[in-house]
Amino acid sequence: MSRRYRQWVKDYQDHAWTLARYILKDAQEAEDATQDAFVKLWHNQDNIDPERIKPWLMKVTRNGCLDRLRRRRDNVELNETHMAGEVSGPMQGASATELGVWLRRAIEGLKEPYRSLVVLRDVNQHSYEEVAGMLELSLAQVKVYLHRARKELREQLAEVRP
Length: 162
Prior knowledge:
Blueprint lengths: L2 H22 L2 H18 L8 H23 L22 H12 L4 H10 L4 H8 L3 H22 L2
């Protein structure tokens, strides 16, 4: 394995896993999707501009997760109750508080592309331009959709306040 590839894994695995975790709502499946994305990166590393590795990887991770969701829907009805378990990985500290648990569930409840936008921009802290490239949206679309997603999250928060 090349040193360059190992560095990419080290630098981007948490970002890819977090995105996959929010989309798939299942830690084990998120690990599988992340691994699949890195396998694709391994096979395509010579064909990708090194400056575009991260956006390419996030896009491949997201698309792989959406494919998994489509297959899941074709096979069985989605069961949201499995989300009550403990989270491991990069979001472990955030889920320790009640608000962290609520926020994670609220983000997971957003529809696409809102969920991906919030995870990429607010959780993984990518720039608007990077998010636009990853999701193949215009910069204006990213800003409008992100505004709508945040508004939905605020409305949900208002419902849980005493």
